[in-house]
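The following record pairs a protein chain with its ligand, manganese (II) ion.
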Amino acid sequence: MKNLAEFILQGDNFAVISHISPDGDTMGSAAALIYALEKLGKRAQWFCEGNVPEDYAKIPQIEKLVKSKKLEKIENAICVDISSADRMGSCLQLFNNTKNTAQIDHHATNTMFAKVNVVRDRNACAFAVLELIEELGVELDYDIARALFVGVCTDTGRLSHVGVTKEDVLDTAKLYALDIKHNEIIATLFQTSTLKKIKLKGRASQHLELAFEGKVAYTYLDSTDYAEFSAQSSDSEGVIDMCKSIENVCFSFFIRQVPNGYKASMRCKPEYDVATLCASLGGGGHKLAAGCTIEADRETAIKILLDKISEVL
Ligand code: 5GP
Ligand code: MN
């Protein structure tokens, strides 16, 4: 972490890059980092391929991220919550053209693609960013704490996931100490829905199948499903949780159509490992939550995933 703090202290202008199809952890971590950079008198601009899901944009600290000011010159780039360079999407070009590169992440599958790499074994990248902010000596404030809380909530299931540690809870308490209005963030992100999200979930539940004596649950959504409800990919965020919640299910996956095939989200019970499974298909992630893209038609994509699961079940 010292290396990354030095990297930051020596620079003046920074591109802060989030991963494609941004989630709460990559955006919350990026927003917190940009606030911290600004507190140090640095200039920073956020870069990301893909639309910000509507719910997140309702949180002022994330909305600010989207509107972060444009820089004329960029000499330093920092990736947040990005396990491999391809997860930058179209921002990879900017990264490759930047002189000084660094990253802060929490994926075991991280490929160490930057010059300065900090990869922490934590349940959210936001916790690693909190450590960085402490290392920099930047005082935690309301905006930073709220941005980090968005990341924590997204990646730990609001501190409910099986691997959540005492350290995670103690770090989250530091955020609560700043009166972050946690209930407002949770209500916006997790307790408010839209008709299109509910319709999509309904469609996904119609497509739901069980395999291997109920140990595997999977479903899909095609582009036509999204179009029918004027929905975007982030509107189906809860679909994988529906699959995962079914009694006796050890593996679940949800695939959604993308221009070059199907994007898979996978989850498993603690005795299994979907990070390795997805990595073998060119993707990655965490042991219990990972993803990959399969360049094939729907039936083939499902068969490939079921075959992979049958090898480890
Ligand atoms: P989700 O299923 O929620 O989109 O992603 C679960 C986890 O897997 C996240 O940590 C995400 O960053 C990672 N992940 C999802 N898809 C991919 C992928 O295609 N490649 C890699 N390397 N990681 C992925
Ligand atoms: Mn993350």
